[in-house]
Amino acid sequence: MAKVVYSNPVEVISFKIFGIFDAFRTNPKLNHLEDSVQIVLLLVTLYKDGVISEKTFTNNFSLSDLKILILESNLNTETKDIYLMIFDVLSDSLSKVFSQPLSYLNFHLFQIEEEMLSEYFPSVVDDVIYRIAHSHGRYAGEFIQPVELTRFMNGLANLKMDSRVYNPFAGLASFGVNLNRSQNYFGQELNPQTWVLGALRLMAYNKPVDSAYLCEDSILNWPNSSEKYDLIISNPPYGIRLDNRYKDIAVQYRTIEHFLIDKGVQSLKQDGKLIALLPQGFLFRGMQEHRLREFLIEKDLIESIVSLPSGLLLNTGIPLTILVINNSKLLTGKVKFVDATSFVSNVDSRLKVLDDNKLIDFIHDEIVDNDVIRIIDNQQIRTNDYNLSVARYFQEHFEGVKLGDIIEPFRGQRGNLPEIGKLIRIRDLKDDNVDFLLDDKAVEETELNRRHIIHQINESCLLLAIRWKTLKPTFFEFKSNPIFKSQDIFSAKVDESRVDKAYLINELQSAYVQKQLDSYRLGATIPFIRQNDLLEVAIKLPSLEEQRAKVQGIYELANKIKTLQEERNALAHGKAVKDFNEFASLKHTLGRPRQNILDWSDNLLDFINNNQTGFEEMNKAFVEFYDVDMMSVLKEIKRDVNFITEVLEKGENGLVLSAYEKQVIPLSDINSIINDLSNNGFNFKIKKLLLKAENTKERGIFANRTLFKTLLDNLLTNANKYAFDIKEIVNEVVIELTEVDGFLVIEVKNNGKPFPKNFDREKFIAKYSTADKSSGSGLGGYDIHRIAFDFNNPDWELSLNEDPIYPVKFKFQFSIKLIN
């Protein structure tokens, strides 16, 4: 019989392996296994090594039988020991697997051609892990590092063949997998489940594992001082403070990154290198990390710093940096700064890919200043107070007058503050080059929290937001009542003998100033700019007459636009009055039934709260039957009735989007809206992966709550109609929130039936177009698109049949704005 030749054998094998995942998923006793990836790859590895076969793997086969087969196999002692260690880690889950009949595995596992599996095994293992990571996003539990980043960091090392390499915080052993076999690798990984996948990868690549990759804590088990390495390379956990487990160490080190660099420098050979993938905050944070940067510069240890944009890692959306420390660097007294932005391309709205081959060639070939590389003297870094932010060293020179020469910082008065006052927040500042005067009358008085640093302003001054992405330049005209501000707002007196304040505010919003500000801004989650840097920004400053002429032109254009808007609004007003009159009777008719439902819901909630003893047994039975408690159901009824009311208030012609006022909704509220979504009435469960970020109350998206909930409801209803015919325990819709590049990315995906092959995004959003005429009207997709468009996301994505686990994926991204 002729041998079958596949165009992509790795994909063929992976497809069969995913059949095992499906078998687990459809088994009620196995579908919640947290170790399913590890167990499936373990079984495939055992099959590849010849330990198990279709003949031996029968229904009465036990875990002890498998251990005996391993001990009696022809495998070397090292491999046998690793298998037994993996069994110890996965013992609970393996016991569940082997308590079930094993025949379901035969079709998928043993139909894989052994010869083809052995030939492509390393690629197959990585392909499965990468597919799982991409399907499950940042909550997969195991975050495999992109191979491009691994190759690039190894390329920066330029190792000799017999080098000793230490990889603390090793994760899935990506650096070990990509090393030459002659290079001595020692890795440590604390998480046992992660260690299992790393061990299986090293075995797949035929790398030594027994003493080279240990399941242990790198902080508590750092090699002793006599151990020196040619390379220490790591992608450590980000932003994690050392807790009570490390109380003796935490006194000296602020974060794991700080610990890694300081201890790493001590463990290098005389010509050794340390290469670390870090968050960019390390480049500019103060206190201990500032002292560490000063030490590294003064000892002339930093060879290069590579800046990478956000979106390269699946488990975080923050921008990154690669720090290269070299005990024997060639460019003494200098640091090579690399801006790798142009070597990164977008795969989708959340993931980007580094062209590592081109970048590494460019870095090795180029040693002169250009758009990608800047060679900076250590003295210049000292002048910048050891700030290593890469963007700072790529600033263009702008002709003009420094902001510090035309404005004078004015903090205002501290101490002896009144109990209450008008506290100005960033949200109160204007972002308008015409209407830029502070409307302090619209700011309500509030209690002044004396724990925060607050200043009283009782003079006219310029106000600038020094947190977030825009200055929001606003002018405060003091008349009789003072205002109060926190440190988030910079205040200054303007030298009006040199600059017209209206002209200055317009220039502060210009592209050339914005470019300078971007090079100075620090921080990923909430960017900020330091006062000293702000005052270095250059402003074009013609004569006062020319300044005023430019301002006058802006005012004239603004007045023309305003007149056109007023004319348009007048035309729209007539139609709005007609719609209101026609709809008033419908609202009146539905008002009483709505209020009746709400009143009885309140009565039931009040009655239950006051009669808990008799209610508990009934509620227990209700929970067992419906998987939700009665109080939650009643609250859900109230929410839904209020939601219906909000929609009815807006008009008779469906969703008139312009009738819904938009505002900045905090990210914490977005989390709550999604968390309140109910499975009730659906053939699936909703898996909610909420945003786990800092300052979710201080940042938000510009949207409307009712429309946002309508968007989600339409997505869930669509999944229920088209993806799931019957209710099964394995059915799920996943709603996942992430933050990337200042955008909130919302991904909604399901593991139900795929769309028809000829169905696409254009057909989905067309009015009255539907994948199944018997299931719906086709308005759901149309409304989803309208709402996304209204929220300034017209290019939202619909991915169909591209993922083996979730064949339908919706992706939306909304710009994040600062609230406070």
Task: Describe what you observe in this structure.
- This protein has 820 residues and is α+β, with helices and mostly antiparallel strands.
- Helix content is 40%, strand content 17%.
- It is built from 26 helices and 29 strands.
Write the layout of secondary structure elements.
Blueprint: H1 9-25, H2 36-48, H3 63-72, H4 77-89, H5 91-98, H6 103-109, H7 114-136, H8 147-157, E1 164-167, H9 174-177, E2 184-188, H10 192-204, E3 213-214, E4 229-234, H11 247-250, H12 256-266, E5 268-279, H13 288-298, E6 302-308, E7 320-326, E8 334-339, E9 344-346, E10 352-354, H14 356-365, E11 373-377, H15 378-383, E12 401-402, H16 403-406, E13 407-409, E14 420-421, E15 423-424, E16 446-447, E17 454-457, E18 461-465, E19 474-476, E20 483-486, E21 489-494, H17 501-508, H18 511-520, H19 531-534, E22 538-539, H20 544-610, H21 612-626, H22 630-648, E23 663-666, H23 667-675, E24 685-689, E25 699-703, H24 705-722, E26 732-740, E27 743-750, H25 761-765, H26 779-790, E28 797-800, E29 808-818
Parallel strand pairs: 1-2, 1-4, 2-3, 4-5, 6-8, 15-20, 24-26
Antiparallel strand pairs: 5-7, 6-7, 8-11, 9-10, 12-22, 13-21, 14-16, 17-20, 18-19, 18-21, 23-25, 25-29, 26-27, 27-29, 28-29
Helix pairs in contact: 1-2, 1-6, 1-7, 2-7, 2-10, 4-10, 8-14, 20-22, 24-26
- By helix and strand content, what is the structural category? alpha+beta
Main sheet overview: 9 strands, mixed
Helical fraction equals 40-55%
* Poorly predicted runs: none
Globally, the shape reads: globular
Q: Radius of gyration, rounded?
A: 31 Å
- C-alpha termini separation: 72 Å
How many strand segments? Answer: 29
